[in-house]
């Protein structure tokens, strides 16, 4: 026999307060009195494979609901009444493979009342899905261009249902949207840069969400992070200069040397980059070359801040003779060692680095090049937007 779901004494107490005996649909007419209000529960009491996606609904006819108590595995289930108090709905989809206990009371204008209690069990999923990683990290302080990157453990078929369950809130509300990059990754970007100093909360209400045939979420996910100061860098590869602004004020000017542009791979990409991570030192190996080939290198580089997935960094380099004069790098931004160390120390993940002056455009999916897309283009990748 399966263990009873929820604390039955609490449910019975609620019914006792109504001053009537439990019935499924009310008491009917007795002695000429008007029919007592009827109370109905969905999913139907007694169900053994109740669906999860529609949540739980309690409805009263010929009266209003005066109390609804729902427990799942001994834990209260939150929900709310509609404006007329004739319908109560759970706030979220139901958890799969869970026992639910429901008790509700309704009252009519003439003072008659009725109640309903019920138990049901939700379906056990054939397959589950979950979040395996979220960027930013919990509690991280990030730059104003920072995206929220969510990776799932399996391909998501019903992207609209999953996207609908992802919420982002900040102290100052911003307009933002999700875009899918394949079947296992969803990315959130605000329309404009985050306001500096914001506390941002990301919540994935995935419990009970149907992501595909027989596939359901069984756990929620919460991450909170902080947007720091607004540090935005601009680099002009033609003048060989980099300017760093913080909250609108220039805080550093740096002479730089960019990619020599003798090949595509040695051409710095133009566009809106974001700082992705940093390392001191980082090992850099020439792409598509083997030891002994012309142009081969394998070196350790100090104070390197990554800005793409195609091997581009802002980093220290002793070729001060070229900085501010000529582009001689393999695609990275070379800076004077002391200034590169300063940039390394002051950078947060998600700081915008805007590069101009080359004929190689940064692809939107090269690293975190998400600001390369216009807002209408970004919305096209959402599963919930018209025309997406």
TrEMBL record:
Q: What is this protein called?
A: Lipoprotein
Supply the PROSITE patterns for this chain: LD_TPASE, PROKAR_LIPOPROTEIN
InterPro entries the record matches: Big_10, LD-transpeptidase, LD_TPept_cat_dom, Transpep_catalytic_dom
Q: Domain L,D-TPase catalytic spans what residues?
A: 231-356
What GO CC terms are in its UniProt record?
extracellular region
Pathway this chain belongs to: Cell wall biogenesis; peptidoglycan biosynthesis
Q: Quick check: keyword Transferase in the entry?
A: yes
Q: Which Pfam families match?
A: Big_10, YkuD
């Amino acid at each position: 026999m399966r263990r009873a779901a929820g604390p039955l004494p609490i449910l019975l107490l609620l019914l006792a307060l109504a001053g009537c005996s439990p019935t499924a649909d009310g008491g009917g007419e007795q002695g000429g009195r008007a029919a007592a209000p009827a109370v109905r529960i969905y999913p139907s009491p007694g169900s053994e494979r109740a669906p999860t996606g529609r949540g739980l609904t309690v409805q009263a006819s010929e009266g209003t609901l005066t109390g609804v108590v729902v427990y799942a595995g001994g834990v209260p289930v939150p929900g709310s009444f509609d404006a007329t108090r004739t319908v109560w709905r759970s706030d979220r989809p139901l958890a799969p493979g869970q026992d639910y206990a429901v008790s509700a009371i309704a009252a009519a204008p003439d003072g008659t009342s009725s109640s309903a209690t019920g138990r049901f069990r939700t379906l056990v999923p054939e397959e589950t899905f979950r979040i395996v990683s979220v960027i930013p990290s919990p509690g991280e302080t990030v730059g104003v261009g920072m995206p929220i990157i969510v990776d799932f453990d399996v391909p998501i078929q019903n992207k609209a249902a999953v996207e609908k369950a992802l919420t982002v809130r900040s102290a100052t509300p911003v307009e933002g949207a999700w875009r899918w990059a394949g079947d296992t990754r969803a990315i959130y970007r605000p329309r404009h840069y985050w306001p500096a100093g914001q506390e941002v909360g990301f919540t994935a209400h995935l419990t009970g969400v149907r992501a595909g045939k027989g596939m359901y979420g069984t756990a929620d996910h919460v991450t909170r992070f902080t947007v720091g100061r607004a540090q935005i860098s601009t680099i002009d590869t033609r003048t060989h200069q980099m300017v760093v602004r913080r909250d609108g004020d220039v805080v550093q000017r740096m002479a730089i040397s960019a990619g020599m542009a003798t090949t595509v791979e040695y051409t710095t990409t133009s566009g809106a980059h974001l700082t992705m991570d940093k390392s001191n030192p980082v090992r850099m190996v020439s792409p598509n070359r083997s030891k002994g080939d012309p142009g081969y290198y394998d070196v350790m580089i100090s104070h390197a801040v990554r800005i793409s997935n195609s091997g581009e960094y802002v980093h220290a380099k002793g070729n001060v003779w070229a900085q501010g004069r000529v582009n001689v790098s393999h695609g990275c931004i070379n800076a004077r060692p002391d200034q590169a160390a300063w940039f390394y120390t002051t950078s947060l993940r998600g700081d915008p680095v805007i590069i101009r002056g080359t004929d190689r455009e940064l692809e939107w999916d090269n690293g975190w090049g998400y600001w390369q897309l216009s807002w209408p283009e970004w919305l096209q990748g959402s599963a919930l937007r018209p025309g997406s």
